[in-house]
Every structure is written in C-alpha cells, then in structure tokens.
Amino acid sequence: MTNKAYRLTAASGIHKGDRDYQQDQVMVLSHPRAKGCLLAVLADGMGGRSGGRKASDQVMMTARQLFERYDPVSDDADAILKQLLNEAHTVIKLIAISAEQEPHSTLVAFLLNPGGDCHWIHAGDSRIYHYQGKQLVKRTLDHSYVQLLVNRGEITPEQAQNHPKSNILVGCLGSENDPPVSLHHIAQMRAGDVLMACSDGVWHYFTEDELGTVLEALAPREASEFLIEKARERARGTGDNLSLVIVKFEPMPS
Question: What is the reported pTM?
Fold first, then answer.
C-alpha cells in the first residue's frame, strides 16, 4: 500500500498472559476493493470463560461484515464505526439473555481511508495511541472509574496507573446502559506517524514515553513481540490477556 509519501506496515500480537483462557481478540483488515484503506479492531472480552470470548468474537464478526460493505468514497467512516459499536453491543446483550452469562467487551477500532484521513472509536479501557516519531500526539481516555478520578483532579495519572480500582469500567459493550461513544478524527496521517491499539494487559505496564521509544525504534512485528515480552516480565506471573495492533506510516525511500 502506498500513499501520501508513506507506506504502511502493520502487525498484531496476542498472548493469554497468566490467564487460563484468551478473551482478547484483535485483527487488521485490508479493504477488499480500496487500496490504502484498512480497519484495525481490538476487543477485550469479559464475563466468565465463554462469555468474554463470545463478546470479543462478536465485535470481530460485526467489524468484518461492516468493513466488507464499506465504500470509502461514499460512506461516512464515523457512522460505520458507531454502527460497529451499536450492533456488537446489541448482539452481546442478546447472548447474555440466551446463555445466562454476562458477556461484556471493550472496543477500540481505527479506520484509515485511502486519502490518509483516519477515524477512531473506543468504549472501555482498551486504548489507541497516536505517535509522531516518539512524541505522543493523542491517546484515548479510558471509560473507567480511575479516569473519572483523574478528570476530577482527585488523583494523578501516575496514581491511576496502579490504583486498586483501576479495573472498574464505567462503560463498555454488553452492559445494561448504552456504551459510551468516543470518536476522534485525524485529518491527514503523515510519514513518521504510528498508531497502536492495545488492551489494558499491555498498556498497564508502560509509560507513554516508553511506548513512544519502542514504537519509533522497532518495526511493527518486532515492537509487538517486544512489548508483549516486556509486559509479561513486568507482570511477574499475574498478567492479564494481552493484545495489540501497530500500524506505522513509514517514509517512502527517496
């Protein structure tokens, strides 16, 4: 894929950590008809062994179906992402009724159009980071109890990282209330940009500066392997499922 004086390289990684089973799901899809158009989706499922996996599977299935029908020329990227969130949420709630489980899932997704504009959506505490080189440009803010405390100025972002209630979400897919919808739009991706989506099993173990250094220095495949390995090391046997996807916008050789 070539476009706008950059070429795209991408990789995803997944590991069950110290859990007995894998509830995270991640995928990167190239558009079947439009060159330079891709969708990255990550879901961290919750709710018992099979419930969480059913929830994250549903996010992937819905994303695949919607992206296959998506036309970058005539369709609205934000509308497609909202449709993904709402449809997956509805089906996950139906699974809960029929299976007597409590499936829930986070969702992060970013859609890159052929023209170089990028759109993202998130619900829950999985994250998307946008770096230019090693400099953080923007990241998602978690729909979590500790983020509310940070917003109110009651704790610092550093304290939030290791807060005992850091795993409590205030919004996700499959819950009784409608999930929160947080959208962001980047008008033009540039050479040197990096996008990373990851579950809390990854980001919990790194500072923003550490992530920026790794993402700038390594190719997506090596970066994903390094981050999973280092997070596993730092978890000291108590690690959650880990999943991530990295897309780099590499300068074209002159």
Answer: 0.96
Cβ neighbours of residue 225 closer than 8 Å, sequence gap 6 or more: 13
pLDDT tens digits for 227-248?
999 999 999 999 999 999 999 9
Please tell me the total number of residues recorded for the chain in this structure.
254
Task: Answer for the pair 225, 218: CB distance below 8 angstroms, yes or no.
Answer: no
Residue 96: CA count within 13 A, CB half-sphere: 19
- The answer to whether the beta carbons of residues 120 and 183 sit under 8 Å apart is yes
Nearest to 112 by CA among 20, 216, 184: 184
CB-count exposure of residue 48 (10 Å: 0-12, 13-18, 19+): middle
Is 143 within 8 Å of 180 (Cβ atoms)?
Answer: yes
Give tens-digit pLDDT for 123-181: 999 999 999 999 999 999 999 999 999 999 999 988 998 898 988 999 999 999 999 99
Amino acid at 10: A
Token pair 């005992």 in the structure block, residue: 164
SS (H, E, C) the chain: CEECCEEEEEEEEEECCCCCCCCEEEEEEECCCCCCCEEEEEEEEECCHHHHHHHHHHHHHHHHHHHHHCCCCCCCHHHHHHHHHHHHHHHHHHHHHHHCCCCEECEEEEEECCCCCEEEEEECCCEEEEEECCEEEEECCCCEHHHHHHHCCCCCHHHHHCCCCCCCECCCECCCCCCCCEEEEECCCCCCEEEEEECHHHHCCCCHHHHHHHHHHCCHHHHHHHHHHHHHHHHCCCCCCEEEEEEEEEECCC
